[in-house]
Amino acid sequence: MHDLLEWIASLPPVLLYGVILMAAFVENVFPPLPADTVIAVGAFAAARGHASAFGAWSATMIGNISGAMLMFAAGRHYGMPWLQRRFPSLVPAEATHRFIERVQRHGIGAVVLSRFLPGVRAIVPPVAGAIGITATRAAAAMTLASGVWYGVVCWLAFRAGANADVFLARVAAQQRVIAVAAVAVVVCGAGVVLWRRATEQKRRR
Q1: How far is CA 154 from CA 75, 79, 101, 122, 163, in A?
Q2: 8 A C-beta contact, residue 112 and residue 144
Q3: Can you say whether the dihedral through the CA atoms of 173, 95, 86, 80 is positive or negative?
Q4: For residue 173, how far is the Cα from the chain centroid?
Q5: Residue 45 pLDDT greater than 90, yes or no
Q6: Alpha-carbon distances, residue 46 vs 18, 19, 38, 61, 142 (angstroms)
Q7: N or C: less crowded end of the chain, CB within 10 Å?
C-alpha cells in the first residue's frame, strides 16, 4: 500500500485530479465503486506531491455533480418505471418510496439530507429527476451535500500529510466519522422540521 501511495503521489497534478474526478463521476453510475477511498487516496497523494487539497476537492465536486446530473437527466427523460427496470439494484422500490415520501413532506431539504445517507444517496439523482424536481434545485441541493461530505473526506486525508500510517488509519476511520456527521445532520434536520410543525400548530391555536 505504501508503494501504491508513493506511485500515486508521483503523478502530475493534472493526471491525479483526473483520476479523482473520474472516481467521483462513476460513483453515481456504479455505486459499488469505493469512491470515498479513491478520493481520500488522491487527497493524501496531493499532500505528498505538488497538488492541493482544494484542487482534490474541486476535482471531486466536478466529477460528482457531473455524474449526479447525468443520472438526474436520465431519470427526467425516461421516468421511474424505466429506472426501476433498467437499474433495479440502483433504484430499489422500498428505498425509492421512502425518499419520495421525505421529499413530499420536507421538500428540497430531503434531497440534501438523503445525499448524506450511504444506503440512499445513490438513488437521489435519478429519482429526483423522475419525480419532477427542477434541475436547478436538485443541483444546488446535491452540491451542498457533496461539498460537505467530500470536504470532510479530503480534509481528513490531506491533514495526514506525509505520514502514510496516519493516513491509512484515517481511511479506516473516515467512514465512521462521516456516518456520525450524517446522523447529526439528519437529527438536526428532523429537529428543525419538528420545531416548524410545533410553531405552526401554536399559530393555528
Answers
A1: 29, 34, 32, 20, 15
A2: yes
A3: negative
A4: 17
A5: no
A6: 12, 12, 12, 16, 25
A7: C
